[in-house]
Structures are given as C-alpha cells and as structure tokens.
Amino acid sequence: MSTKVTLNKQTTGEAATEDVIIDVRNLKKYFPIHKGLLSRVVGQVKAVDDVSLTIRKGETFGLVGESGCGKSTLGRVILRLQGATEGEVIFNGRNIHEMGGKELRELREEMQIIFQDPFGSLNPRFLVRDIIGEPLRVHRKMSGKEIDERVVELMEMVGLDASRRNRYPHEFSGGQRQRIGIARAIALHPQFIVADEAVSALDVSVQSQVINLLMKLQKELGLTFLFIAHGLNVVRHISDRVGVMYLGKLVEVGETETLFAAPLHPYTAALLSAIPKPTPGRRQERIVLQGDVPSPANPPSGCRFHTRCPLAQAKCSQVEPLLEEIMPGRQVACHFPLVKGDSGGVN
Amino acid sequence: MAEKLLEIRKLTVGFVTDKGLVKATDEISLSIRQGQTVCLVGESGSGKSVTSLAVMRLIDYAGGVIADGSIEYHGQDLALKSQEEMRHIRGNRIAMIFQDPMSSLNPVFTVGEQIAESLRLHQNMSGDKAWNAAVDMLRTVGIPAPEIRAKQYPHELSGGMCQRVVIAIALACKPELLIADEPTTALDVTVQAQILDLLRKLQAELGMSILLITHDMGVAAEMADRVAVMYAGAIVEEGPVEDIFNTPSHPYTVGLLQSIPGFEGERGRELYTIRGTIPPIGQLPDGCRFHPRCPHAMDICRQKEPFDFLVGDGDDHRAACWLFEDRPVALVDGRGGRDEVKRA
Q1: Dist. CA B2–CA A197, nearest whole Å
Q2: Dist. CA B124–CA B204, nearest whole Å
Q3: What pLDDT, in 10s, does the model give residues B247-281?
Q4: Residues whose CB falls within 8 Å of the CB of residue A140, separated by 6 or more in sequence, listed in order
Q5: Are B223 and B196 in contact (CB under 8 A)?
Q6: Do residues B48 and B42 make contact, with C-beta atoms less than 8 angstroms apart?
Q7: d(CA B38, CA B21)
Q8: Triad B98, B104, B109: Cα angle to 5°
Q9: Nearest-CA neighbor of A251 among A192, A298, A303?
C-alpha cells in the first residue's frame, strides 16, 4: 500500500506545477450478479477494479480499450452518475463520492457528459431550444428571454444555425445532433467534460468536423476532457495523455506520442498493431491476439492479460502486476514491459 | 489477368415513392475478377449496401427495384432472374455476410444446424454428413472445440465467434463470390484483426472473390486489390488500391483520406474537413453531385454531370470529375465501365 501512495505522489509530482483537476484513487465498481428465486448474490462483475489516475487541468485524457473493459463505467463513476463500490474521486480537492445533495447539485454544473448516440441522447419530444436550455433552467435563475439569448449564443458556438432552435431533434443530422449534445454540455461553463464515444457513431467527414469543434471549445473555454473511445486514431489525434484499460484495470498510462511510438504493455502493443492503417502495400507484421476478452465476472488470476499475452511467463499467472512508473511520465502494469534497449527491461 | 466473375453495368437501384423513383444508386459500373477483393467504400447513405443487396437480388425484399442496368455473372444477367432461380445462386455460388453477427443468426437453432442447413439445401447432403461438414467448417474458421460449439446456441458465443459462425455458413458451400457488408464494424479492433486475417486466409484457400463493403479506409487499404469510392449513389472514383491511396484524384476521395485522424506527429492539429453534409437521396444537386462541397468546383460542375475519366498513366484508374477533362486522359462514353473506354 505504501508503495502505491508514493507512486501516486510520483505521478502527480511532475504535474504538481500544473493543477490536477481529477484524482481517482483506487476506484472500484462491482456489479452484483443475482441468481435464483431469492436473487442471491452469486458473484461480482468487476467492471472497474482498483483504478488510480490523475487528470490535469486543461488536458485531454484519452481512455481506450475494447468493449466491456470498463472504460464507460469508469467515466460514469468519475462523474458520480453511478456510485463507487470503493475508492475516491477527488475533484478540485473534494471527494465527490462523499458529497451531499446540495453540494452534488452544484458539482453537476462543473462536470458534464457527452454521449455516444446522437439519436438516443436527445429527448425527441423536446425542442432543441429546450434541450440546450434545460441545464440553464435547472441550475440558473434566468428569465425565458435570457435563456433564449444564451441558447442562441451556444448554438452559434457549436456551429448550428440558431434560427432552427424551435425544431425537434429528428430534423437534424447525426453530426448536428452531436453538436446539440455538445451545446447542452457546455451550457453551464463546466470545467470537466466526459466525452463517452462522442464521435464514434459519426462518418469520417462529419467526425473530423466534431473533433475540430471539441478542440476549438477546449481552447476557448479551457475545458478538461476525459475522452473515452475505442477508435484509437481519434484518441491519438485529440489526447495529451492516454490510458489503456483491459478487463477493469488500467494497464498503461503515458503521453500520447510516446505511448503510440513505443508501447510498454503487450496489450497496448497488440491493440495498436490491430488498427488498420490507410496505407496499402505496407501490411506490417501484426500481433493478432488469440481468443476473446475473458469475463470480468471471473477474471484470470495474476495478470489479467496473461491468457492472451504472447509473452506470458509463469509469474504472470500468479502475481498481479501493479501500475508503476517505470520511466518519467510512463506507467505500466506488467512484469515484463516492452522496454527498448538498456532500460533494464526483459525485452 | 483472371476472368471477370461479376460485371455490374450502369446499375440503377431505387425505391418507388409518391414522388416517383428515388435513386439509391445511379448508373454504377464495377467489375470483380476471380480471386480479387474489391472494396466499396463510402459514408452512410452513399448506396454501398443497396448495391450489395441488388447483386444478391435481396433488394426486392427491401422494397427496392432494379430500375436499369445489368449484373452479369458468368454471362447471365442476375437482374433478369426470378427469385426461384436466384435461390440456387444465393448462399451457394454467391454468399453474403452482414454487419451484426448476433442478429444474422437464428437464436432458436444451434450454430451447427444453421451451417448444416445450407449444406442440406444446396449440396443435397444427408443429415449426418451435413452435420459433420458443419463441424469441419467451424474448425476451418478457427473456432476451438468445434464439436461442442456446434451444439451451442448463438447467445452462448461472443461477438467475434458469432461472426466466425456467420462466415462458416457463408463459406460452407464454397461460393465463388463472398459479399461482406461491414463484416467487422460491430467488432473490437483486436477481433477485427482476427476476422480480417481469417477472410484473407480462406480467400487464399478457396480462391473466391470478395466484395467488401466498408466505411473504414484502413480496412479497405489492408484488404483490397481494387477500391471503389461511392458518394451519394455514384462511384466517383475507382482503381487499384495503391492508386486510390497514393494518388487519390476525386476531390471527395482526397477529402475523405485527409480527414482521417491519428497520423503520427499531427496531434492537436485542426483536421481537414469536407464542408457541408452528404445530400439525401432524391435531393441531389444539379451537375456534379459533389460540387456544393467541393473545394475545386468550377462552372461546368454546377451544370453538367461529369463522365468517368481516366486518371494517371494506366488505364484502370477512373474518376468522375471534370478536373481531369483536360488532362491526357480518355473519355468514357457515358458512365460506363472500363470496357467502354475509348482513347480520346
């Protein structure tokens, strides 16, 4: 435990000059599995299992991993849209999982979320004006006229035609709807936004428009993003730092460029090599992982990746590796990280 | 060069509405040779899936009609065949796999039965023989313990395994042509890599042709011999994969490739965007269908729809764009395929 505490200090050490906005400490989220007539709890799905990370003010932290790895759950627990089983989420110095009603209500103004599905995340019976204005109505004492002015301002900020505010969501295209979701998220001047697969459902040409918008808003409003996505190309483009999750665990964290250039964890390496690249003729040697992701209800012993890891050794199935900083700014949870050259690694 | 297996000529597929025929594809021409992989790429609503459904003649069931053009397969026009005749081709000579593996399998039959069904139907195999062949097929697509898996239901299998089962069903009768409509879109990247490897391996073993439909330029670059780019119902550019990616010519293809994020050392840079959005079918602009979004639009683009022109040095890379009119290229008569190319 003591090593972990110092580790936290180390990782934040570099960031101490910059402000840490989110500090996640040993966060766990388990979902009970009920069975039978009496709904006895027969097990736990360990969706997020002992994850610690820090997000600095003004940065974009990319979170990647395959479906079911717990990245969306982590995002939701960080916002306290779901309670934590254990652990803390420190937002600007306060643990949000200990907050009471009024405090929590104020917190909601500071943290927002943009969802994946531009069709499911907007109420089809609300006018766009009401969708974007709803947070203002709930949190601010503003007159109808003031709200309307702010809605016009917000719509112009996200590149929507404000004269269409008296229309319903179905009259907008997927990309436009995602802009509506973004306008709603920034309405209350939040500091921190979780973008959960915010551009995954969009076509490439629309996706690039929305990515540009998110980057522009971040610059203008000084936003901090937790950018959750399975599309690694998008994450690479937008993130300052990237965290890789596998079966509820954070297996690697690092600066985007260095992580993509030389991954330390074998899973990260496999994930990166699996991205199809738009360059024909250079079909690079690819690490194809065998099998599927094991069930998070019954994760493998030791390192959770050992069942699919091409480099697994005896130790991996017995001892669980901890997320440790093995070089400045780079953390990895692996007994045999893929370190290059003389850094003392096995490979 | 291998023989042409499928030749689509000036195919127009549409849907009949109160306002008349709405064209989902507009005189598209495309050919696939034996053993070749042709990728049809484009964004949602560009007509990729409609094209594949038309080749299978499943478009009839989706409420669409083949309004014009031909689909030649071994010299026979599939567009003129009856559904009865198509049933002998479909699943047997031409097979198809869809995007969502979970919903393309029947939840109340074991996966073994579902594979055996097509063998019994098309190859007149007996029950036992078909079952054994089904188990073999599961082994071929890389499912561990196939004897056990064959007796399981789709819900007992993961998404990647289900897609392998769907591929096993499609390939059970050793088709000459496999149409794969976004076969990996619903899967994670590591599983996608497995499935793409599997398709390549099986293609090499069976010598089949693949028409792969995808929106992912990365998948196209990796799998294709030839790439056809669709925009708003038309093929705007078509050629060998290296030409399409190394020297893209149509402004739409250029824009599509430039707006892909994730290249090394470009983090945080403003991404290239194609302004505007794809027009809905039935509301196409006059002239070139891309001109309202095109950075190079000229007067002629607003007035007259472009023909296919040859681009580059070879004679197998075409683009439907007026920019190439005054280059040393040949004019294609109408919106024809490469057969109809006449040197200007």
Answers
A1: 43
A2: 26
A3: 999 999 999 999 988 887 788 889 998 888 888 87
A4: A147, A188
A5: yes
A6: yes
A7: 28
A8: 150
A9: A303
Three-state DSSP at B237 gives strand
The pair of structure tokens assigned to A54 is 């820090």
Sign of CA dihedral B195, B198, B204, B208: negative
B256–A205 C-beta distance less than 8 A: yes
A171 part of contact set with chain B, CB < 8 Å: no
CA distance A187 to B167: 47
pLDDT digits (tens, 9 = 90+) for B105-148: 999 999 999 999 999 989 888 989 999 999 999 999 988 899 99
Determine what percent of chain B is predicted with pLDDT higher than 70. 94
**Enclosing H/E stretch for B250:** none
CB contact under 8 A, B268 and A215: yes
Measure the CA–CA gap between B64 and B21, rounded to whole angstroms.
10
User: If you search the block for the tokens 């014009």, which residue do you land on?
Assistant: B68
Interface test with A, best of B267, B274, B275 (most A CBs within 10 A): B267
Asked whether the beta carbons of residue A292 and residue B161 sit closer than 8 angstroms, the reply is yes
**How many alpha carbons lie under 13 Å from residue B117 in its C-beta half-sphere?**
15
Q: Is a pLDDT exceeding 80 seen at residue B303?
A: yes
The one-letter code for the residue type at A173 is S
ipTM > 0.90, yes or no: no
In the DSSP assignment, the letter for residue A11 is H
Of B59, B93, B64, B79, the residue nearest B10 (C-alpha): B79
pTM score over 0.90: no
As given in the structure block, the two tokens for residue B277 are 């959005």
Q: Which residues contact A251 (CB under 8 A, 6 or more apart)?
A: A244, A245, A265, A267, A268, A305, A323, A332, A333, A334
Using CA atoms, how far apart are residues A238 and A71, in angstroms rounded to an integer? 17
The answer on pLDDT for A7 being more than 50 is no
Q: If we measure between CA atoms, which residue out of B36, B65, B35 comes closest to residue B50?
A: B65
Q: Are A331 and A11 in contact (CB under 8 A)?
A: yes
What end-to-end distance do the CA atoms of chain A give, in Å? Answer: 28
> From B242, which residue of chain A is nearest by alpha-carbon distance?
A280
- What mean pLDDT, rounded, does chain A reach? 88
More confident residue, A22 or B283: A22
Q: pLDDT at position A18, please?
A: 60
- From the list A151, A194, A202, the residue with the least C-alpha distance to A178 is A202
For helices A266-273 and B189-206, the axis angle rounded to 10 degrees is 50
Alpha-carbon distance A104 to nearest alpha carbon in chain B (angstroms): 33
DSSP state of B42: -
**CB contacts < 8 Å between A and B, how many?**
129
Supply φ then ψ for residue A67, to 5 degrees.
-60, 140
